[in-house]
């Protein structure tokens, strides 16, 4: 039962990993950019939530009302001011700019909040659980978060395939030059993609802050988990990404059962294993 | 009408540069006699960053392999030194060379895996690799596990019994590694493969149609850089005498600083990383507050450089003046 | 004569160090069709790219409806009512046929074209509307590309190499659709390899050679030999041979 429990917990945290991955994947899909600051943005969002909760007394989940639009606006501004000027020329420049942003965010948070770790208290919902079988209890909060993650991925899929914004994303990704002739301002489209990514980052940050302790150095690991979920699941396939996140979560849970030192390592090894035997991921997009 | 022309690489300036560089090198070799102990030590550190930045620049600036995970090989080299010296009793200076070979060997099977990652995802892949190394070495209890270990004094004394000579030997090792790294990059870029790399940078598709084996070229660059980086890492931890997973595989120390040095100095030039390193240490020695604030300032400057002068300070200088000190490209010269 | 809809004056443009156009003068009056002919590499595509803003030039070099638009952002120029059917179709590969059309119609000007009208013009597209754009045959893809440009209700539509790479029967279908398009009052610039066919549907033509206009006028004005000479660059004006 201990093992079943571990695997179930792994599945549930996989939803959060998929959330880390979704924003990363969105940006790569639209502008072929890998945002190295993605994990640090998640942690920054966690700190923003912390400040909002402390200042307003809102419930952490309710703080999304403020954190999400704020992060989206910051994401949009970051894209227009720092990233757009470098995009399109080569792969190196935008990548290094996001690396610079990552280092600045991480150390900026360190200056502002010290290296002490924090956590957002979510109240009674934290301890509530449902007994599904003898010896197997599911926490209400992890369930809610998993469901929310699935819903967000579903929503993202809808935006991508059912709205004019999604069409603009896909057209710009397919052929940036001709997309401009469709009256699409590339800079704005990229800005909107980063805003949407940052909105997901905001939710991910709040969830992270409720689930675990976080500190300014927690970002790179979130970036890596998200990245691994993307690659394990297969590029350009959001449901694959969810599966990738779950696979990663389960791998880590199994690793942790073997030895605490193996938790993260097991996830990395599964990532390299997938890269070795199925380089296009478990669920590659057909095209 | 036949047009007569010649292919030239060297310029008068580059020949002058070569002479000045040799004189400078002679002066640096003699540093243990004219510089204080603290300065000799600092110079050793400078050389290690010159080597790291030069090697990173070869990958990112010439081969299109943007890595944010070179700390994997710095740490690997460091741990190899400790393991070889402590468990096999190998002389530390010989262990540095062996660590380099080991780094290249381990990179060989890793490279094909990482190359499967598309475009910019390669960068994050290199980071995962560094994390795998960090977590794995943290499991090795004979090397101190998560908290690390120190190099036993007996091994240190083994380098040379006289303290002055020992420090000089370590210093010369660092100088050798830096000079060898630069020489390797210059010679590689001047070779046939260097032409291939230039073609690769200009257009991957076009160079493939010219029959250039991109994959093999990248493999050679990646493994060679891994080897030299491991050697540099082995030196760094010989100078530090203490190693731990967090220090050995630190992304800030061995990648962030190195990237900022290359970006500010000038990616895709031989001179850039050297100039960037000098600037980096001048700034570091003048700014009292190390660490956090310094990283923020460096990050901001690097972003500014990427936005305003993507070829860095040296690239900007070359653009303005047309001067290059270490030419790696050939020029067609028409007689008057 | 009233002010032309599109007026190009002394247009010089190129890519980096390579100059492709050396002072082009051209007019397209409202509602007329201009055939743009010339050999490969003469600069026709660069000309269209300059008009759409994909290649930059000085503002006064391109005027649309009396307004200097040279070097404006492509999306702004498109919004003024200039549409392009690019060489090689260039449909959006991840969009379905219908999505390709719909994206063309976003923020459209007021006008006759709608999804229904486009499907009326090219009925096959209605059948294939759920297919990915790239899954269609070359001719059908060209229909989508034309429909995509029409959906914006442009005041000027430019076709780059309208029949390049298409089967003769398909070319006939495409040309059969042209009168319907022209009848809506839109101005047309037509780049075409087949000079005879191009001249048969145009009120005016311009021949581009090595980045300059080598001959321009109305199709009846010049004989076949003069046009051929302007096309290939043999000198006829001197009458030396």
Write up what this structure looks like.
The complex is a heterotrimer of chains A (287), B (336) and C (241). Chain A is mainly α and 287 residues long. In chain A, 72% of the residues lie in helices and 3% in strands. In chain A, strand 1 and strand 2 (136-139) form a beta hairpin. Chain A is globular and about 60 Å long. Chain B has a single domain, classed as ABC transporter involved in vitamin B12 uptake, BtuC (Orthogonal Bundle). In chain B, 73% of the residues lie in helices and 3% in strands. Chain B has 16 helices and four strands. Chain B has helices at 12-29, 31-34, 37-62, 71-87, 92-114, 121-137, 153-159, 163-190, 192-202, 204-209, 214-240, 245-248, 251-265, 271-286, 292-308, 312-321, and strands at residues 6-8, 149-150, 242-243, 331-333. In chain B, helix 3 crosses helix 14, helix 4 (71-87) crosses helix 11 (214-240) and helix 13 (251-265) packs parallel to helix 16. The mean pLDDT of chain B is 88. Chain C is of the alpha/beta class and 241 residues long. Chain C has one domain (6-240): 3-Layer(aba) Sandwich (Rossmann fold). Chain C has helices at 44-52, 74-80, 97-104, 115-121, 123-127, 138-150, 168-183, 195-201, 224-232; strands spanning 6-15, 18-28, 33-37, 62-64, 67-68, 82-85, 156-159, 187-191, 204-209, 212-217. In chain C, the strands form two sheets. Chain C has a six-stranded mixed sheet with strand order 6-7-8-3-9-10, with helices on both faces. Chain C has a four-stranded antiparallel sheet with strand order 2-1-4-5, with helices on one face. In chain C, helix 3 (97-104) runs parallel beside helix 6 (138-150). The longest helix of chain C has 16 residues, at 168-183. Chain C is globular. Chains in contact: A-B, A-C. Chain A binds chain B through residues 28, 32-34, 36, 82, 85-86, 89, 91-93, 95-97, 99-101, 103-104, 107-108, 110-111, 220, 223-224, 227-228, 230-231, 235, 261, 264-265, 268-269, 271-272, 275-276, 279, and chain B through 60-61, 64, 66, 68, 113, 116-121, 123-125, 127-128, 131-132, 135-136, 138-139, 146, 251-252, 256, 259-260, 263, 267, 292-293, 295-296, 298-300, 302-303, 306-307, 310.
């Amino acid at each position: 039962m201990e093992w079943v429990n571990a695997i179930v917990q792994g599945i549930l945290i996989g939803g959060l990993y998929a959330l880390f991955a979704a924003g990363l994947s969105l940006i790569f899909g639209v502008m072929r950019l890998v945002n190295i600051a993605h994990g640090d943005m998640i942690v920054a969002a966690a700190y923003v939530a912390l400040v909002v909760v402390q200042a307003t007394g809102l419930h952490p989940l309710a703080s999304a009302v403020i954190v999400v639009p704020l992060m989206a606006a910051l994401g949009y501004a970051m894209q227009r001011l720092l990233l757009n000027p470098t995009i399109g020329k080569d792969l190196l420049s935008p990548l290094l700019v996001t690396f610079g942003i990552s280092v600045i965010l991480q150390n900026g948070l360190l200056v502002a909040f010290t290296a002490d770790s924090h956590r957002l208290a979510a109240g009674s919902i934290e301890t509530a659980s449902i007994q599904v079988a003898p010896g197997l209890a599911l926490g209400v909060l992890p369930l809610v978060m998993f469901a929310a993650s699935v819903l967000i991925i579903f929503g993202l899929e809808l935006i991508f395939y059912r709205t004019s914004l999604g069409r603009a994303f896909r057209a710009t990704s397919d052929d940036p030059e001709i997309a401009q002739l469709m009256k699409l301002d590339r800079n704005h489209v990229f800005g909107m993609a980063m805003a949407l990514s940052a909105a997901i980052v905001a939710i991910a940050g709040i969830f992270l802050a409720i689930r675990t302790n976080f500190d300014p150095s927690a970002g790179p690991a979130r970036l890596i988990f998200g990245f691994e979920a993307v690659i394990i699941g297969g590029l350009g396939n959001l449901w694959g990404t969810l599966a990738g996140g779950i696979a990663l979560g389960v791998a880590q849970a199994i690793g942790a059962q073997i030895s605490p030192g193996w938790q993260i390592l097991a996830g990395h090894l599964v990532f390299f294993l997938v890269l070795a035997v199925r380089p296009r991921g478990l669920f590659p997009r057909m095209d | 009408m036949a047009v007569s022309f010649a292919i030239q690489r060297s310029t008068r300036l580059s020949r002058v540069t070569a002479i000045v560089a040799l004189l400078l090198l002679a002066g640096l070799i003699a540093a243990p006699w004219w510089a204080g102990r603290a300065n000799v030590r600092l110079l050793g550190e400078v050389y290690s960053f010159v080597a790291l930045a030069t090697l990173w620049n070869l990958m990112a600036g010439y081969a299109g392999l943007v890595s944010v995970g070179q700390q994997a090989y710095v740490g690997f080299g460091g741990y190899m030194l400790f393991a070889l010296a402590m468990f096999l009793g190998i002389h530390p200076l010989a262990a540095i060379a062996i660590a380099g070979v080991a780094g290249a060997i381990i990179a060989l099977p890793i490279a094909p895996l990482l190359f499967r990652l598309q475009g910019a995802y390669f960068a994050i892949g290199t980071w995962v690799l560094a994390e795998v190394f960090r977590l794995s070495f943290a499991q090795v209890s004979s090397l101190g596990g998560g908290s690390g270990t120190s190099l036993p004094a007996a091994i240190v004394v083994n380098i040379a019994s006289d303290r002055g000579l020992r420090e000089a030997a370590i210093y010369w090792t660092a100088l050798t590694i830096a000079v060898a790294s630069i020489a390797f990059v210059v010679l590689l870029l001047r070779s046939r493969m260097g032409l291939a790399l230039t073609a690769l940078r200009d257009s991957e598709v076009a160079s493939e149609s010219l029959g250039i084996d991109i994959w093999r070229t990248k493999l050679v660059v990646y493994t060679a850089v891994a080897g030299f980086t491991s050697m540099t890492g082995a030196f760094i931890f010989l100078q530090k005498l203490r190693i731990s997973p967090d220090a050995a595989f630190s992304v800030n120390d061995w990648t962030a600083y190195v990237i900022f040095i290359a970006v500010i100095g000038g990616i895709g030039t031989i001179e850039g990383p050297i100039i960037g390193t000098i600037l980096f240490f001048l700034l570091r020695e003048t700014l009292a507050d190390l660490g956090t604030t310094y990283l923020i300032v460096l990050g901001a400057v690097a972003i500014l450089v990427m936005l305003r002068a993507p070829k860095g300070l040296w690239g900007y200088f070359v653009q303005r003046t047309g001067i290059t000190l270490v030419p790696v490209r050939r020029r067609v010269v028409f007689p008057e | 004569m009233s002010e032309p809809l599109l007026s190009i004056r002394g247009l010089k443009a190129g890519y980096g160090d390579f100059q492709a156009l050396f002072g082009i003068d051209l007019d397209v009056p409202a509602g007329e069709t201009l055939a743009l002919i010339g050999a490969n590499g003469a600069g026709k595509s660069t000309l269209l790219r300059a008009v759409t803003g994909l290649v930059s030039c000085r503002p006064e070099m391109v005027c649309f409806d009396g307004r200097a638009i040279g070097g404006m952002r492509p999306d702004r120029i498109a919004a003024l009512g200039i549409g392009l059917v690019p060489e090689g179709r260039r449909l959006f590969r991840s969009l379905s046929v219908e999505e390709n059309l719909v994206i063309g119609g976003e923020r459209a000007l007021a006008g006759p074209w709608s999804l229904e009208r486009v499907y009326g013009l090219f009925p096959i597209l209605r059948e294939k509307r759920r297919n990915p754009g790239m899954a269609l045959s070359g001719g059908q893809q060209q229909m989508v590309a034309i429909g995509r440009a029409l959906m914006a209700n442009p005041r000027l539509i430019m076709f780059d190499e309208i029949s390049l790479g298409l089967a003769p029967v398909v070319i006939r279908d495409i040309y059969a659709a042209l009168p319907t398009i022209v009848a809506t009052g839109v101005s047309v610039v037509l780049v075409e390899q087949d000079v005879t066919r191009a001249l048969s549907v145009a009120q005016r033509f311009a021949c581009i050679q090595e980045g300059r206009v080598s001959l321009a006028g109305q199709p009846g004005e010049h004989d076949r030999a003069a046009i051929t000479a302007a096309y290939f660059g043999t000198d006829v004006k001197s009458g030396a041979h």
